[in-house]
Structures are given as C-alpha cells and as structure tokens.
C-alpha cells in the first residue's frame, strides 16, 4: 500500500482488489452477486464485472 498526503495507507497499483476473491492489477473478473431471493427461496443475482487497472487512477461505479 502507498501512503497518501494525510499519512494513511491507500491501495497502490500492486495491490489486488478484493471482493469475495482477488482481482489482480491488470485483470478482470465476472461474477454474479446475490441481491435477494424469491418467495420460493431461489437466489436473485445480478452480473458484476470488476476491472482492476494496472495504474492508479479514478474509480468508476456504474449501477
């Protein structure tokens, strides 16, 4: 992790992104995220793609 100007540690470009599993820098992962369930107990899932860039930069979330 890299230190920012406030002295706290922030993820740097060599750190993997973690969400149920790791996504290494320069890689992407497709997964299904369970958001609810039907009245019968079946999972309701949405597809999610995580892209972890090689370099530090802006973060984007499109919902």
Straight-line distance between termini: 28 Å
What characterizes the major β-sheet? 2 strands, antiparallel
Proportion in β-strands: over 45%
- Strand order of the main beta sheet, please? 1-2
SS field, number of helical segments: 0
Structural class: mainly beta
Number of beta-strand segments:
6
Please tell me how large the radius of gyration is: 16 Å
| Uncertain residue segments | none
Helix percentage? under 10%
The topology string of helices and strands comes to EEEEEE
Instruction: Categorize the overall geometry.
Output: elongated
Mean pLDDT, all residues: 78
Region (Disordered): 1-21
Biased composition (Polar residues): 1-11
Give the SSE layout.
Elements: E1 2-3, E2 9-10, E3 17-18, E4 22-23, E5 27-37, E6 43-52
Antiparallel strand pairs: 1-2, 3-4, 5-6
